[in-house]
Amino acid sequence: MSVATSGWLQAGLLVFALAVTYRPLGDYMAHILTSPKHWRVEKGLYRLMGVDPEADQTWPVYIRSVLAISVVGMLLLYLILRIQDHLMMSLGMPPMQADLAYNTAASFVANTNWQNYVGESTLGYTAQFLGLAVQNFVSAAVGICIVAALIRGFVRTKTDRLGNFWVDLTRLNLRLLLPISVVLGLVLIAAGLPQELSNHLTTVNTVTGGSQSLYTGATGSQEVIKLLGTNGGGIFNANSAHPFENPNGFTNWLEVYLMLMIAFSLPRTFGKMVGSHKQGYVILSVMGIIWVASAGFMTWAEERHWGSALAVAGSSMNGKEVRLGVPGSTLFATTSTLTSTGAVNSMHDSYTALGGGTAIFNMMLGEIAPGGTGSGLYGMLILAIVTVFVAGLMVGRTPEYLGKKIRPAEMKYAALYILATPSVALAFTGIAMATTTARNSMNNSGPHGFSEVLYAFTSMSNNNGSAFAGLTGNTDFYNTMGGLAMLLGRFLPMIFVLALAGSLAKQKHTPASVGTLKTHTPLFAGLLTGVIFIVVGLTYFPALALGPLAEGLK
User: Fold this and answer.
1) Under 8 Å CB-to-CB from 404, ≥6 apart: which residues?
2) Contact present, 443 and 470 (Cβ < 8 Å)
């Protein structure tokens, strides 16, 4: 089978699997978020937490709950990393240094999973299971909680209540993330991922008779939530390029599917909750168009190595996973950078200028195609509001979306959301380029060196977590500033989303009229796609011109 045929087959099977999943998973998530019934185990957890499951929260209370569990989670994870040498199954690992522990704790709580450390030589098993894995579940559920609150803002009228965060968080973990992780974790273990709970897996060399102990990290049970929750932090430094995390072509395909399944099904949840599946189809179509275009362009750039010095050597496989080929690598890279996962099965730093630039651009889009668990959909809905507002300006009419008027208050929150992440990414990149110690971490000069720094802060502020490997990140500057960028990039947008949801929920429903823009048509999908690229282009084009574009045209 040719490489091209293999690539098309992988993509086709992926689209088919997502289409099969879309309706049942989307409807199930809507049921989780709207059902009035509580499971018995959930009631027990509510009593333990002192939570009244019937008490809805205003948006300030909802965001305070989000921040409260995030602060507590970050402090506990920091403590675990600092005292891991006193914990069981530490494997003799020393405590993590203070600035790195802060960066790691911020990273996993913010659903970024940026790793300035080598997992197999830094963390014991307890730190992996009790520390990192717990945050993989919690941070993933938090993103879906936020989009659920935003959808309720569209659905509810004349109220300031958006639901109960603790109920949403508990249900999403017990009814969604944990069951899928258990089932598909067993599938991955059967496909070759190790699940070794002793200190190390011991292998014997049949030729010499010698033995070797290998770190496994009980990879099988950790891998699903790493990808399902669009977290991305790998057990091993090589991440999904490591044969323990990704042993063959089937696991590679399944891991790409895991990154997409929840995010691509959430538009169905949105349509179900607002009472119009056509609204969900429009959002899904825009996500799909961007994902297909990005995957196609990145694959073309890597196979043709246009604009790259590697063309002289004729090597499109530089930095790729040899077992998987270019399509297997670029499909993974596109999905990872468009979903805020950050997992890698190849080295993005070794991609061509335009291929690596596409990965950066994917993150600059706000990771909305389909984006992270929850964060992709609420980012897309914010851009839909902006699109409706722009269309309203064209005809001189107060814009409406899903029966709610988009007034100056709503647009202020939407504008703050759109500006928050780019402001963090570009400001921190500028600070790094103006700081001698930060520039000394660059292993390359010129446009590619700048691209490494731009990629890093774009990745951190967008809560992606992948990196150009040429940048040395484990320094005081990048640990400190990176941790701050991840926290700001995660929680500032959430504040603006919930404020917007609260403003929408207070309104009454406005019936559609002849002047109302139809938001369930191909025309609106085209307008939304255009607004996405215009907003990103105007925001990031100067930075892209200094980095990957300059390198590609060099």
Assistant:
1) 153, 154, 410, 504, 507, 509, 510
2) yes
Alpha-carbon distance of 491 to 426, in angstroms, equals 17
Top-ranked range on mean pLDDT: pick from 170-184, 185-199, 242-256, 322-336: 170-184
Q: Specify the 3-state DSSP secondary structure of 539.
A: helix
- Block residue for tokens 């993989």: 136
Strands 400-401 and 211-214: unpaired
- Alpha carbon 518 to its chain's center: 30
* Cα angle: 294, vertex 295, 301; to 5 degrees: 85
Which of 243, 265, 287 terminates a domain? The answer is 265
* Alpha-carbon distances, residue 216 vs 81, 91, 124, 209, 275 (angstroms): 19, 12, 10, 21, 47
Q: How many CB atoms lie within 10 A of CB 120?
A: 19
What is the extent of the structural domain holding 529?
A: 376-553
Could you report the per-residue pLDDT of 63-80, keeping only the tens digit for each?
A: 999 999 999 999 999 999
Domain count, the chain: 2
**Is residue 326 a part of any domain in this protein?**
no
Residues 42 and 161 in one domain: yes
Residues 261 and 381 both lie in one domain: no
d(CA 465, CA 206): 39
In a domain, 207, yes or no: yes
Nearest CA among 449, 444, 454, 448 for reference residue 424: 454
Q: Which of 265, 285, 307 is the last residue of a domain?
A: 265
Residue 173 forms part of a structural domain: yes
The DSSP line for 81-110 is: HHSGGGSTT-TTPPPPPHHHHHHHHHHHHT
Kindly report the length of the chain. 554
166 token code pair: 């603790």
Buried b (16+ CB within 10 A) or exposed e, 293-306: ebbebbbebbbebe
Give the model confidence (pLDDT) of 392-418 as tens digits: 888 777 789 999 999 999 999 999 999
Handedness of CA 113, 115, 121, 127 (dihedral sign): negative
Residue 134 placed within a domain: yes
**Residue 404 · residue 507 · CB < 8 Å:** yes
181 and 40 belong to one structural domain: yes
Looking at the DSSP bridge assignments, the partners of residue 404 are 401
